[in-house]
Design brief:
Length: 394
């Protein structure tokens, strides 16, 4: 019996060795960035950024280009992605994609047809960032060489995440987030928008990292609003932060509050919480947004005497009034200019008062435009830093 089991085990070892779908490392190329632009002769121009592992390793780097960017045109994403071997000798691996850049021109025409491919393709994961190339082509962003991280997509991916965590200037939208938001009955999707500051031709050469001031750099610029799958317009970074605040996605940020003419004081917001109540009142949706935040005083043009009782009351009152106006301004802009609920208030209204939301299922735009939206901000200043009293400022 033991001999029989031993024989079976030995035979099994030989049968289980090997891998039917093995692939050698030198036969693969890792794609970290994808760009989609409008084609000249076909519907799309798809560009991929394939990294050079040798140049990313300080021990083996020879000062050559850290990545290869190549473009092909076609009418469907599936055809193009499997056609790159007309010029590239290796198998492209898309599972490590970090960034998808969408050109402004194709974004205005509509992005749903090619986004459907990325949503269906099993080899592409859904954890990459998506941005719109404002005032230019998407492929240019894959060509900019950076100092700290030479490969453009590997630099932009953490740049977007850090901006979200430290200041709140990007929506942190991944593929699944976009698809879910677009399919919802009460929210319009948004994406981060970026620009190339400087000369994009210099940005694509190694000279871009040989000076203390780069010739070109990819910068987060604004927020792109999509409606019916098409780009409608942009919001600035200040408005982007307010959007995140309403959505309760803001972690930390820094505020500059005007005090008098050309005089300001700064706050570092370290904790926030936003709660929203939605219901039908007198035949129209009423939404109340309650924002609470803790902050520290980050410098002031006004004299500070922190040791006094209620020393921060004036700062807090001015901060609350300022933010309530800024919140209301953005909400009114979205209700009148774009008629687009980027905040997801319709989703909250559906969850909290579905009985009345049912009348807006087919057209939440009408409900959002007519909604009465109130904002209540309560900022508390907990500390004044290492110093209690400030210098006397004239």
């Amino acid at each position: 019996m033991r001999r029989c089991l031993l024989s079976i085990s030995i035979i099994s070892i030989f049968l289980l060795t090997g891998c039917w779908d093995h692939s050698e490392l030198n036969q693969n190329a890792i794609v970290t960035g994808i760009a989609v632009d409008k084609g000249e002769t076909h519907k799309y121009k798809l560009s991929i950024e394939s990294t050079s592992a040798t140049e990313l390793n300080p021990r083996t780097a020879q000062g050559l280009a850290p990545a290869i960017v190549y473009s092909i045109e076609g009418d469907t994403m599936g055809e193009i992605t499997h056609k790159f071997n007309v010029a590239i000798s290796t198998h492209l691996v898309f599972s490590h994609t970090r960034l998808l850049v969408i050109g402004e021109e194709i974004a205005r025409e509509g992005i749903l047809s090619f986004m459907d491919y990325f949503d269906r393709e099993r080899e592409i994961r859904d954890d990459f960032n998506i941005v719109v190339a404002k005032d230019g082509e998407a492929v240019d962003f894959l060509r900019v060489i950076n100092d700290y991280q030479k490969v453009s997509s590997l630099k932009i991916f953490p740049q977007l995440d850090h901006m979200l965590k430290e200041w709140g200037g990007t929506p942190g939208m991944k593929l699944n987030d976009f698809i879910r938001t677009y399919a919802s009955e009460g929210q319009v999707p948004v994406l981060a928008a970026m620009i190339i500051s400087g000369d994009k031709e210099i940005g694509g050469s190694m000279d871009n990292i040989k000076t203390t001031t780069p010739g070109a750099i990819a910068k987060i610029d604004s927020l792109a609003i999509f409606k019916y799958g098409k780009l409608q317009g942009y919001l600035n970074l200040q408005e982007t932060r307010i959007l995140l605040w309403i959505q309760n996605k803001l972690e930390r940020t820094s505020l500059t509050i005007p005090y008098e003419d050309q005089k300001f004081f700064g706050l570092r917001v370290i904790h926030t919480q936003t709660k929203i109540k939605a219901r039908q009142v007198n035949g129209r949706p009423q939404i109340d947004i309650f924002v609470r935040a803790e902050s520290t005083l980050d410098g002031s043009d006004k004299e500070i005497k922190a040791a006094k009782v209620n020393a921060f009351e004036d700062f807090e009152e001015r901060s609350n009034n300022y933010l309530e106006k800024e919140f209301s301004k953005l909400i009114k802009k979205m209700q009148t200019e774009y008629v687009a609920d980027i905040f997801g208030l319709g989703e909250i209204f559906r969850d909290q008062d579905y009985k009345h939301f049912k009348q807006y299922v087919e057209n939440w735009d009408a409900g959002f435009k007519d909604a009465k939206i109130n904002v209540h901000v309560n900022i508390e200043i907990k500390r004044s830093g290492f110093r209690n009293n400030s210098y006397k400022i004239n």
